[in-house]
Design goal:
single chain; alpha/beta; seven-stranded parallel β-sheet; 17 helices; binds uridine-5'-diphosphate-glucuronic acid; Epimerase_deHydtase
Length: 491
């Protein structure tokens, strides 16, 4: 018996004796003589029987309702967003879902149990014939949020997962999560490095796909926090692929976010999937390139169908505050200076185009071929990589000019030589492979896309652009918090 158990057992006996002793003392005082000895013995026996019966009951309860003994986990998607009680039940279910730090060790034990598994199955059951059942990692992130909405909107079953880290303002991620919940999509607080939880999730329901978008983003930030990139983009990817390879019911196909940054110092343009990607310019790019090599290995060994999508500077409503277009908009509104890297050009790609690309990649992923929990494969499985760009690079100065026009205010610009911090001077996507295989055709110009972004930005942060964009009103009609949130978001 382990020491702790021995200890507890001994304590139990001591408690037992103490209690029995106390009751016999009372009886002795009440009746005296030999009679009390009999009563004392029977009371002793009665006490022990009660303790044993209680223990048996607790054990029975734990076996049949393990989830009730752990955290409450009601998935918020089950409540109608329109019913009067739904907002409070949503709030309380959020509290139960969000009440943890989301670190690898915190969620593993609490997300489990038969009832929890039933909720997972309910959540990922598609509402349309031949619909997909998709686990979306990074679902409270920019691209994950939009993809989750789109998948759910067309009747696929979606379960989201996000660790809500503080790389940029988590309140924006929480707002995305709330909006998803109001549409019926749940996002669990969990980390992709929590392999045990991923395994439980993928064993609980027949997921057909994993859309793996959780990652440590940001090209230049990699110099400040290199380990975060290794943890999320390398270890985290391995954790997701391990869980997919060994999924209990069926191996899902995996579609994941690579990056245009893998082209690194490539000088051929436009960038094609056939070009060199062995000269990354940043650790971020190196981790994404490593991810593509890791994907190859998992496809080869386990027969996992894996598709890597190389995103090109994706922007739009509900975007990432750390990205240039977003932080520039905030600085312009606040009258703060912005720093432009001379001659930088990007193939800015609008979120709706990227979402269509992601769904096209999911729809055409093909099946994984691993059997017996990933121990062997029945044949080769698809291994694909695609550019998802806009095919028309734009100077960053032009992007700022469009923002100035939309916000009705001039930027305070400082133009400097591009620092050697991992950035690359230009990106330009060739998307013929994605067009051929799933009809990917970006249709949104930078002007149009930024207009949608600014519409959302002024509404979300209550920016008064009629007054020249100087005024940021108290946000949301409920609290002034969002104003400071807007101004303090990570960059
Ligand atoms: O497409 C990609 O692969 C990558 O796109 C973006 O990376 P990046 O293109 O560097 O996006 P931003 O940080 O928004 O920068 C956009 C442009 O603005 C320029 N920039 C950035 C920051 C700044 O202060 N000044 C400035 O001129 C950059 O040089 C770049 O040309 C994302 O941040 C990455 O997560 C993603 O993987």
């Amino acid at each position: 018996m382990p020491a702790g158990v021995v200890d507890a057992a001994a304590k139990g006996v001591r408690l037992d004796r103490h209690a029995a002793g106390a009751s016999s003392l009372l009886l002795r005082r009440a009746s005296g003589g030999n009679k009390h000895l009999l009563v004392s013995a029977s009371s002793h026996l009665l006490f022990r029987a009660t303790v044993l019966a209680t223990l048996a009951l607790v054990l029975l309860f734990a076996v049949h309702y393990p989830s009730l003994l752990s955290h409450s986990f009601t998935l918020s998607s089950s409540s109608s967003p329109h019913s009067p009680s739904s907002s409070s039940s949503r709030r309380s279910s959020h509290r139960s879902l969000l009440g943890r730090s989301g670190g690898p060790s915190s969620s593993s034990s609490s997300y489990s149990g038969a009832a929890w598994e039933r909720e997972i199955r309910r959540s990922v059951t598609p509402r349309r014939a031949d619909g997909l059942s998709v686990l979306v990692t990074g679902a409270a992130g920019f691209v994950g949020f939009h993809c989750s909405l789109a998948l759910h909107g067309r009747g696929d079953g979606v379960l989201g997962l996000d660790n809500f880290n503080g790389y940029y303002d988590p309140t924006l991620k929480r707002a995305r999560q709330r909006l998803l919940a109001s549409r019926g999509v749940s996002v669990l607080d969990a980390d992709i490095n929590d392999g045990a939880l991923l395994h439980r999730l993928l064993s609980a329901a027949p997921f057909t796909h994993v859309l793996h978008l959780a990652a440590q983003a940001g090209v230049r930030h990699a110099m400040r926090d290199p380990q975060a990139y290794v943890s999320s983009n390398v270890a985290g990817l391995v954790s997701v692929l391990e869980a997919a390879a060994h999924a209990g019911q069926q191996q899902p196909a995996v579609v994941w976010a690579s990056s245009s940054s893998v082209y690194g110092l490539n000088t051929e343009s436009p960038f094609s999937e056939d070009h060199r990607t062995d000269r990354p310019a940043s650790l971020y790019a190196a981790t994404k390139k490593a991810g593509e090599a890791i994907a190859h290995a998992y496809n080869h060994i386990y027969g996992l169908s894996i598709t890597g999508l190389r995103f090109f500077t994706v922007y739009g409503p509900w975007g990432r505050p750390d990205m240039a277009y977003f932080s520039f908009a905030r600085s312009i509104v606040a009258g703060e200076p912005i720093t432009l890297f001379r001659d930088a050009r990007r193939d800015f790609t609008y979120i709706d185009d990227v979402v269509r690309g992601c769904l096209g990649a999911l729809d055409t992923a093909g099946k994984s071929t691993g059997v017996s929990g990933g121990r062997k494969k029945s044949g080769p499985a698809p291994l694909r990589v695609y550019n998802l760009g806009n095919t028309s690079p734009v100077p960053v100065t032009r992007m700022v000019a469009v923002l100035e026009k939309l916000l009705g205010k001039k930027a305070n610009k400082r133009v400097v030589t591009m620092p050697t911090n991992g950035d690359v001077p230009f990106t330009h996507a060739n998307v013929t492979h994605a067009a051929r295989d799933f009809g990917y055709r970006p249709t949104t110009s930078l002007e149009e896309g930024l207009r949608h972004f600014v519409d959302w930005f002024v509404q979300y942060y209550k920016v008064d652009i009629k007054g020249g964009g100087n005024n940021v009103l108290a946000a949301g009609g409920k609290t002034g918090k969002r104003k400071s949130m807007a101004m303090s978001a990570a960059s």
